[in-house]
Specification:
The complex is a heterodimer of chains A (690) and B (117). In chain A, 72% of the residues lie in helices and 3% in strands. Chain A has 24 helices and two strands. Chain A has a two-stranded antiparallel ribbon. In chain A, helix 14 runs antiparallel to helix 15, helix 16 runs antiparallel to helix 17 and helix 16 crosses helix 20 (530-563). Chain A starts with a helix and ends with a helix. Chain B is mainly α. Chain B has four helices and no strands. The chains are: A mainly alpha (690), B mainly alpha (117). The A-B interface holds A 667-671, 673-674, 677 and B 35, 38-41, 47, 109-110, 113, 115-116.
Chain lengths: 690, 117
C-alpha cells in the first residue's frame, strides 16, 4: 500500500467513531437497539483498519514517518514574525501506529463488553455515543502531528471523560467525580497550554517536527536552555493531569463512579495513556533536567499509589490505585530513558488493566444480580470484604483475572513480565549511570507492593469462602458478550503476543518497532545517549530480572500467607501499625489536604471576594446610586422650581398681558372704531410730513 | 389781544372767499360728528346714521377735490358711487337691524353680543 493509502486509512480510523457518535447523538433513540450496533460496528471497522495499518506500516515502511498536512489558517505576512501559517495534519510513525491499534482494540472490546454490562441503562444510546467520542478524541491525540491538534484532542478527551464518568449523574458522587476529573485535569492543562505557547512563540509553528528541527539547529525558547527545560516540564504538566501523576492523581480513584467499562477504557487505553503518549511524543525536546523531574514524579506516583492500594477495600479503587502506580512506572521509565520499555509497558498495561477492570465489572455485575435477588441494597457490591469464593461460580472471569494479575505482578510468561522487567532494568541502569539510586529502589519496592495488593485482591475476591454462603448460590457467570472480551484480553496478556522469548522482549516486535528517538536538545543538557544507556541496560538486565522476580514472589507469598493461609493476621498488623494503616486507608490524606488548602483556600478566597463584592463593589454601586439619586433630586428641584417656575412665570405674564389686553377687546365695534380713529391720529402725528 | 383780534379779523376776512379749505373743514366736522355718533350711540339706527355722516363727509371731500384739487370729474363719479353704496349699505344694514330687533327685541348694540360667547 502506498503512503497515501495508509494515511487515508488512519484518517478513516479517526473519523469512524466520530460518525457513529454524531449518528447516535441525533438518532440514537430511534435506531433499533438504540444504535449500539452502529457505534460498535464503527469501532470494529476501525479496529480492523488499524490492524491492517499496523501490519502494513511495520512491514512496508518500518523506518519512515508518514505525514499528511494541510494549511489550516494562513495569516500571510505578519509584521515582526514573517509569513505565518498554521498547518494541521496527521503523522504516522511506529509509535502512533502501535498506539492506534491499542486504542481501537481496547475501545472495541469495551464496546462489546458494554453491550452486556449496560443492558437496560436509561441512557444506553448516549453512553455508546460518548464511548465513540472518547475513542475519537484519543485517536486524534495519537495521530496529531502538531501540538495544536494534539491539544484539541487532549481537551476532547477531558470533556468526554467528564461526560462518561458522570454518566449516572443522578448520583451526586458520580457528577462530583466527573467535575473533579475535569477540573483537576484542567490544572495540568494550563501548564501544557503555557508550554505549547512557549514553543509557538519561539518557533512560530505547532508542528512537532519543526520544533524538533528548530531545537536541533540550536534555536532555544528565549535563547536559554533553562527555558527549554521549563517548557518541557510545562508540557509534562499536561501529562501529570491526564495520566494522574502525583500530585494531580486524585481524580482517578473518584473516576470509578463511572460505569466499569468506562473505567476500563479510561485506565487502559485512552485517557491516562494520553499523558504517557504525550511524553513519548515530545521526548526529543526533553532536557536531562526535565527528564529528571519526570522520573522522580513517576517514582513518587508509583510508590504513593501502590502504598494506598494496599489498604483499600473497594475492588475498583484498588485497581484505580494500581493504575496510578503503573502509570508512575511508565512515566518513570520515560524519565530514566527507558523509552521503549515505558511505551511497551503502556501497551501491555492497556491489555491487562482493561482486562482487570472488565473482570471486576463482571464480578460487580454478578454481585449486583445476587444482591438484587435478596433485595439487598445495603451491601456494597464492590467491597472485597463482601466477596470470596467466586472462583467456582465464575470460572471464566476467575481464570482470565488470574492471567491479568500475574501479568501486572510481572510473573514470567506474561506480557507484564516483559515490560516491567524492561522498566526495572532501565531504572537499574539509570541508577548505575547517574547515581540516583532512589529510583531503582522505588521501582523494585513498588513491584513487590503491586504483587502483594493484587494477590490480596484475588484471594479476597475469588478464593476462600464467600462472606454470605447463601448469596454465593445466586452468583452466575456473566453473559458471553462479556466473557469473550475477557478471554481475548487474557490471551493478549501472554508473552507470545509480544515476543517469542519469554524472558527478554528486546527482539519482540514492539521494542523493535518503537525505538527511542534521538534527542534534539543541546549536548550540554542532553540525557545519556542511547548507546551508553543500551550498554548499561544490557548489564542491568539479568540482575534486574532476578531481583524483580524475587520481590514479586515475595509479595505474592506475603499476600497468600496473610489472606489465604491466614498465617499473618492482617487486622493485628493493621492494629499495630494503626497510624500507618489509617494514613494509607485515607489515601495519604490527599483529598483532605486539597480540600483544606486548595478547595478551602478557594472558598476562603471566594469569601474574601464576596466581602469585596458586598462592600466595595456593592458600596460603589450603592454610592453611585446614592449620587444619582442626589443629582436627580437636585435636578428635579431645579426642574420644579426654575424650569417650571419660568414656564409658569411666562404663563402668568401671558395671563396678565391677556387680562390687560382683554380690556381693549371689548367685542364692541364702537370701541374699535375709537381705537382706529385714535390710531389714525397717532399715526398722523408720528408720520407727519411737515 | 392784538394777535387774537387779528386772527379773528383775518378769519372773518377769509370766510367769504370760499375755497377748498372751507369744504374740507365742513367735511372734517361731518366726519368727526359721524365718528362720534358711531362711537357713542347705543342705538343701532343712530350708529347707522353716524356711518351715513362719515360717508357723506367723504363724498364732500371727493367733490371738493374734484372742483379745486385737480382731480377733475373722477371725484364726482366716485362721490356718486359712494352715494349708491351708502344707499345699498343702508338698505342691508336696516334689514339686519330689523332682523336683530325681531330676534332680540332690542336694537341696543351692546346687548346684541351673542357672537362673543
Amino acid at each position: 500500500m502506498s503512503h497515501d493509502a495508509l494515511l487515508q486509512i488512519s484518517i478513516a480510523i479517526l473519523l469512524l467513531p466520530l460518525v457513529g457518535f454524531t449518528a447516535l447523538i441525533f438518532l440514537g433513540k430511534k435506531l433499533p437497539r438504540q444504535g449500539d450496533w452502529l457505534e460498535t460496528g464503527m469501532i470494529t471497522v476501525s479496529l480492523v483498519l488499524s490492524l491492517v495499518l499496523l501490519w502494513q506500516k511495520l512491514t512496508l515502511y518500518p523506518a519512515e514517518t508518514l505525514m499528511l498536512r494541510f494549511t489550516w489558517v494562513d495569516f500571510g505576512d505578519v509584521s515582526g514574525i514573517g509569513p505565518l501559517k498554521i498547518a494541521l495534519g496527521v503523522s504516522l510513525d511506529n509509535l502512533a501506529t502501535v498506539m492506534i491499534a491499542v486504542v481501537s482494540l481496547i475501545s472495541c472490546l469495551v464496546h462489546y463488553f458494554s453491550i452486556g454490562y449496560m443492558h437496560g441503562d436509561v441512557r444506553y444510546s448516549r453512553y455508546f455515543a460518548y464511548l465513540g467520542f472518547f475513542s475519537f478524541s484519543m485517536l486524534m491525540i495519537v495521530v496529531a502531528d502538531n501540538l495544536f491538534l494534539l491539544y484539541v484532542g487532549w481537551e476532547l478527551v477531558g470533556i468526554s471523560s467528564y461526560l462518561l464518568i458522570g454518566h449516572w449523574y443522578e448520583k451526586k458522587s458520580a457528577s462530583d467525580a466527573g467535575m473533579k476529573a475535569f477540573i483537576v485535569n484542567r490544572i495540568g492543562d494550563v501548564g501544557f497550554f503555557i508550554g505549547i505557547m512557549v514553543f509557538f512563540t519561539t518557533f512560530n509553528t505547532f508542528g512537532l517536527r519543526e520544533i524538533f528541527e528548530g531545537i536541533q539547529n540550536g534555536q532555544l525558547p528565549y535563547g536559554s536552555e533553562g527555558w527549554l527545560t521549563a517548557a518541557g516540564v510545562l508540557v509534562f504538566c499536561g501529562a501529570v493531569g491526564k495520566s494522574a501523576q502525583f500530585p494531580l492523581h486524585v481524580w482517578l480513584p473518584d473516576a470509578m463512579e463511572g460505569p466499569t467499562p468506562v473505567s476500563a477504557l479510561i485506565h487502559a487505553a485512552t485517557m491516562v495513556a494520553a499523558g504517557v503518549y504525550l511524553v513519548a511524543r515530545t521526548y526529543p525536546l526533553m532536557t536531562m533536567d526535565a527528564l529528571m523531574v519526570i522520573a522522580y514524579i513517576g517514582a513518587i506516583t508509583a510508590f504513593v499509589a501502590a502504598s494506598i492500594a494496599i489498604a483499600q477495600n473497594d475492588i475498583k479503587r484498588v485497581l484505580a490505585y494500581s493504575t496510578i502506580s503503573q502509570l508512575g512506572y511508565m512515566i518513570m521509565a520515560l524519565g530514566v530513558g527507558a523509552y521503549t520499555a515505558g511505551f511497551f509497558h503502556l501497551v501491555t498495561h492497556a491489555m491487562f488493566k482493561a482486562g482487570l477492570f472488565l473482570g471486576s465489572g463482571s464480578v460487580i455485575h454478578a454481585m449486583h444480580h445476587a444482591l438484587h435477588h435478596y433485595n439487598d441494597h445495603d451491601t456494597d457490591a464492590q467491597d472485597i470484604r463482601n466477596m470470596g469464593g467466586l472462583r467456582s461460580r465464575m470460572p471464566v472471569t476467575f481464570w482470565s483475572f488470574i492471567v491479568y494479575t500475574l501479568a501486572i505482578c510481572g510473573v514470567p510468561f506474561t506480557s507484564g513480565f516483559l515490560s516491567k522487567d524492561a522498566i526495572l532494568a532501565g531504572t537499574y541502569a539509570f541508577g548505575g549511570l547517574t547515581g540516583h539510586l532512589l529510583i531503582p529502589v522505588v521501582g523494585f519496592l513498588v513491584a513487590g507492593l503491586t504483587a502483594f495488593y493484587m494477590f490480596r485482591l484475588v484471594v479476597r475476591t475469588f478464593l476462600g469462602t464467600h462472606a454470605d454462603p447463601h448469596r454465593v448460590q445466586h452468583i452466575h457467570e456473566s453473559p458471553r458478550v462479556m466473557t469473550v472480551p475477557l478471554v481475548i484480553l487474557a490471551l493478549l496478556c501472554l508473552f507470545f503476543v509480544f515476543s517469542l522469548d519469554p524472558f527478554n522482549a528486546v527482539d519482540g516486535w514492539i521494542p523493535q518497532a518503537v525505538e527511542r528517538p534521538a534527542t534534539t536538545v543541546p549536548a550540554a543538557v542532553a540525557p545519556p545517549s542511547a548507546e551508553i544507556f543500551e550498554e548499561a541496560l544490557h548489564h542491568a538486565h539479568s540482575p534486574a530480572m532476578l531481583l524483580s522476580l524475587l520481590v514479586a514472589g515475595l509479595g505474592i507469598l506475603v499476600a497468600f500467607l496473610t489472606y489465604y493461609w491466614k498465617k499473618i493476621d492482617a487486622d493485628a498488623v493493621a492494629n499495630r501499625l494503626r497510624p500507618v494503616h489509617r494514613f494509607l486507608l485515607n489515601k495519604w490524606y490527599f483529598d483532605e489536604l486539597y480540600n483544606g488548602f486548595v478547595v478551602g483556600g478557594t472558598l476562603r478566597l471566594t469569601r474574601v471576594l464576596r466581602w469585596f463584592d458586598d462592600t466595595i463593589v456593592d458600596g460603589a454601586v450603592n454610592a453611585a446610586g446614592w449620587l444619582t439619586r442626589g443629582t436627580s433630586y437636585i435636578s428635579g428641584k431645579f426642574d420644579n422650581i426654575v424650569i417650571d417656575g419660568s414656564v409658569n412665570l411666562s404663563a402668568y405674564l401671558s395671563g396678565i398681558a391677556g387680562l390687560v389686553l382683554r380690556k381693549f377687546q371689548t367685542g364692541k365695534v364702537q370701541t374699535y372704531i375709537v381705537y382706529v380713529v385714535l390710531a389714525v391720529v397717532i399715526f398722523y402725528f408720528v408720520y407727519r410730513v411737515v | 389781544m392784538d394777535s387774537s383780534s387779528s386772527f379773528v379779523s383775518e378769519f372773518v376776512a377769509w370766510l367769504p372767499h370760499v375755497g377748498l379749505t372751507h369744504f374740507l373743514i365742513v367735511s372734517a366736522l361731518l366726519f368727526s360728528l359721524g365718528i362720534y355718533g358711531i362711537a357713542t350711540r347705543r342705538n343701532a339706527i343712530l350708529v347707522l346714521m353716524g356711518v351715513e355722516l362719515v360717508l357723506n363727509a367723504a363724498s364732500i371731500n371727493f367733490v371738493a377735490f374734484s372742483r379745486y384739487g385737480g382731480v377733475n370729474v373722477d371725484g364726482q363719479i366716485v362721490a356718486i358711487f359712494v352715494i349708491i353704496l351708502a344707499a345699498a349699505e343702508a338698505a342691508i344694514a336696516l334689514a339686519i337691524v330689523l332682523n336683530i330687533f325681531h330676534r332680540f327685541q332690542t336694537v341696543n348694540v351692546d346687548e346684541v353680543s351673542s357672537l362673543k360667547e
